[in-house]
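Why do we care about 3D structure at all? Because function follows from shape, and shape follows, mostly, from sequence. That is the central idea of this module. The next example makes it concrete: a single protein chain, its amino acid sequence, and then its structure expressed as C-alpha cells.
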Amino acid sequence: MIEPTSRCGTIAIVGRPNVGKSTLLNRIVGQKISITSRKPQTTWYQILGVHTNDNAQMIFVDTPGWQYRPQRQLNRLMNRQIEAALTGVDIVVLVVDARNWHTDDDKVVALFATNPCTKIVAMNKHDKVVDKTRMLPLIAKIQAHNQFAEIVPTNALRGDNIDTLLGIIRAALPRAPHRYRDDQVTSHSERFLVAELIREKLIRGLGDELPYAASVVIESFHDTGKHIEINAIIWVEREGQKGIVIGAKGARLKSIASAARKDIESLLQRSVFLQTWVKTKSKWADDLNALRELNLSD
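And the structure:
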C-alpha cells in the first residue's frame, strides 16, 4: 500500500474560559466562524475550522471553556463537547494566558494527560507582558508537566507567531488524505453561523444584565434572489428578561439586530433582511429538548 504524500489531522484547541481559543481559530482559518466576546463561556459548541496549505490539511476543533462546577444542563453539555473533541485527536493545542498560570489550567491539562497525541502550548496575549522574563515562571510550570512538545508565544488577535504555530502543527500531522475541499473553512451550515453571530451581539450588547440566559434559533432562512431573508427567535428564560433584550421602544433589540446583520452580510456576501423576535422559554438551559433544538445534546 502506497503511503499518502498529503498530511491531514484533527487538532483540538482547549483551555480555560476567555484565553483566546476562538480568536485563535478565526485567525488560523482567516474568517470569523467562532464568536468571541470578553466574557467567558461565549463558546457553547465544538466549532470546526479547516486550514489547508498545499499538501497539509489541519482540522481544528474549538471547544468551550471547561466548566468546573456545571450547575445547569447547558454547562454539563458544554463539558461533554470538550471530552468528545479530545477523543481521537492527533494534536492538542492548549491555549493559556501568557500573564499567569491558573489552577484551572492544571485541570484542563488533566483532561488530556493520558492522551498519547502531540501536545503544544500557545501562550496567548504575550504582548501584554512587557518584561518577558516574567513569563519564565509560566514556562517552568508548563515544562513541569513533561507533556508538551513545543511552547509558542502568540497573539491570536494580531497574528503574532501564528505561522510558527502552524509550522509546528503541520510537522506533527499524520500522513493521510484530505477530508475537506481545499477551499472549505468549516463544516457548519450558514444557519448555524448566523445564529451564532446574533448570539454574539446579544452577549456583547447586554453587558452583565443578561449574560447567558439568551439563545437564538433560526426560524427561516430564505434566498429571494435579491437578498437573504432571515427570521430569528431569541429565547429568554423569564418574561421580565424580554424587556431587557428589547430595550426602551425596541432600541436595544434594533441595535443588536443591526450589528448582527452587518456581520451576517460579511459572512454570506449578500444583502440580508433580518427580523428578530424575543420569546420566553422557561428554563430552556435545563430542558434537553430545547437544547437539542439548539444543536446541544449528548
